[in-house]
Structure formats: structure tokens, C-alpha cells
Fold:
Amino acid sequence: MKPEKLSRRDWLKLGAAGVAGISGATVLDLAGRGGAGRALSATGLGGGPSRGHAPGGAAGSPDSQQDTGGLGVVGETRPEGEFDPDAFLTDFDYGEVTTRDDGRTVRSWEIVALDREIEVAPGVWYPAWTYNGQVPGPTLRCTAGDIVHVDFVNAGSHPHTIHFHGAHPPAMDGVTPVVNPGEKFTYEFEAQPFGLHLYHCHTLPLTRHIHKGLYGAFIIDPPEGRAPAREMVMVMNAFDTNFDGENEIYAVNTSAFFHNQYPIRVGVGDLCRVYLVNVTEFDLINSFHLHAAMFRVYRTGTRLDTSELTDTIMMCQGERHLIEFELAHPGTHMFHAHQSEFAELGWMGAFEAVEGLAATDGAPVHGDV
Ligand SMILES: [Cu+2]
Structure:
């Protein structure tokens, strides 16, 4: 199977006016961050420290910053119209759902590769290659047995693919064919097995195509579901901002120290579930450490029983696990890489455990309560 060329109509659709209409895209302001993006913030649509208190927002108050050891950044990321780490944390994209004649559920997404500058720390911009204009790409979510249908369009400047982790026919594995700029290709396969998977570009050189930003989380839910919980996606990533083959900025979900500045609010005693993915390039491992509590590990999310209780887990690139925990005490609970260097370079955040938090507040409860 070969990629198709984009038609003139496809290109028009990707133009400045049409790009915002792409299904599943959070931010696609090709006009540039200096123009329309900043102008929007003057309208008072979110923006600034007050947004952490917005209904349904995951983050807490920036006042909590001093509680997490003095590490952090000066200034604010995410001018309006840019990638919002709060929104990304709890944004699960279930695609467009249709039912086939044979009764099978089909979930369809359009994913567009685009070159785009992204802000990885206040004032630090990185020339990324993105899926749908954001890094990480959208979190795709389905149930085991669904048909996954992804229309991939390459509107970037380099050849790309989408390689999905999980089980599927090799023709749908996203190593070949390479999709050149101006081409499109459709991936379709049955979602198997349930667990936490990953998708990323598999074009050579892999180090470059991955660290430039072409990756995202791919969740396949078990048919019976999981217990209701405050659910979050954390993709551990890093950026080589001076292209010397080493990372200068580390984070979960791209923005250095973001959840240190805006702690994630959860209810005391609530079940919390983090879909934790490591895509960090250049460094052999990354890790997740939680303060003042222990968590249960569900390796790759492919089993419903836990394999261990710990407060620190080490992960190679491409590994991903579910972790679950309850915070028994109110207050700030740091989380960070236990490579101190990574933590000091941005991979640091905090949960704020709050008494009596509504199920829809903070990181919202996901599933039937
Ligand atoms: Cu690529």
C-alpha cells in the first residue's frame, strides 16, 4: 500500500483558515504565536494565574509554588491559543464514533503532521515537528476490539509515519510506507490488547523524529473498564534546545515545571490514575517519584492486577505504565524524576490534595461514580 498525494483541496483545508477545523486538534494557529495567539489573551479568555481556578481546570493555585522546594521558573508559559498542559493532562480523544454493518465500533481520527514552534519553558521556544500542532500529540483512546481508523496527513517539511505500539498487522505498523510531505496514508486495525500504548513517528533517523515531538499516548481500555478515578496522562519528554544531542529541558507534557507552578488538584482519599509514558530521547532512562504516598504499578496497563507497590519507578524509552494511588493527607505532594538533574531542569510537579473536592473539579473523576 502506498501513500496518496494530497489534493489541492486537502492543502486548502490545511491553510490558515481551515486548519483549526481539523478533528481532534487542540491548537492549530498557523498565524504564529506572536500574532493571533497573543492578541487573544487581551480578550480575557482564560490566561494568567486565574485560569488555574477555572471550573473543571486541573491545576491549583500558583501560590503553592513555594511549597515545592523553591525549584521552578520565572514567568508563565502558554500564551492564549498555545498548548495548555492543564487541558492536555485530562484530555482523552475518543475520535469520531461510527458503527459498521457488522456491529463493530469504528473510531476515526485525522492526524496531521505540522512543523510548529512550541514553548517548552517560559520564553523558550522549540522548533517542533508535531501531530495536530501539539506535543505530545492527542491522547487517542478506545476500547479493546474497536476498529482504529487514522487518516494521517503529512503537512510538514519532512517524511513521517505513525507507528502504533500494540498488536496489529505489520502493514499497519507505521514503519513503511514513509509518508512524504504532501502525502496521506490511512492506518486501520483492531485495537488490541487493552493497555497503555504509544504512537510515534518511525522515520529515520529515529532520534530526530521522536525528540522533535512526534509522539503521543494511545490508551486501549479493557472491555469491562477500570474503576472510576481521577485520570491523567503524563508523557515524560525532554528537549534538546541547542541540538547537541543532549536535553536541556525536561518535563511531563512538554512544559517545564508547569505543575510545580500549578499543582494538580485531587481529592483527599480519591483514587487517582496516571497514564505514564516515557518517550525521553538521548537519556537511557527516566523515572517517576511520588512524595508522601506510595503507588500501585500496572505494567503497560495490560493486566488488571498490580505488580508492585512503590514510590519510584524507572522507565526506558517506550515503556509506559498505569500508576494508581490515593493521597491520604491534604496538602502538597511533589512528584518528579528521581534523576535529580532532570528534576532541576524542569521535570517536577505537585499534586495538591484537597478535602471535599467535587468529582468534576481539579483532575476530574473519569468513569461512572
Ligand atoms: Cu517523522
The chain is about 10% helix and 35% strand. Helices lie at 8-13, 33-41, 85-89, 206-211, 258-261, 340-344. The chain has a mean pLDDT of 85. The pocket of copper (II) ion is lined by residues 160, 201, 203, 209, 214 (CB under 6 Å).
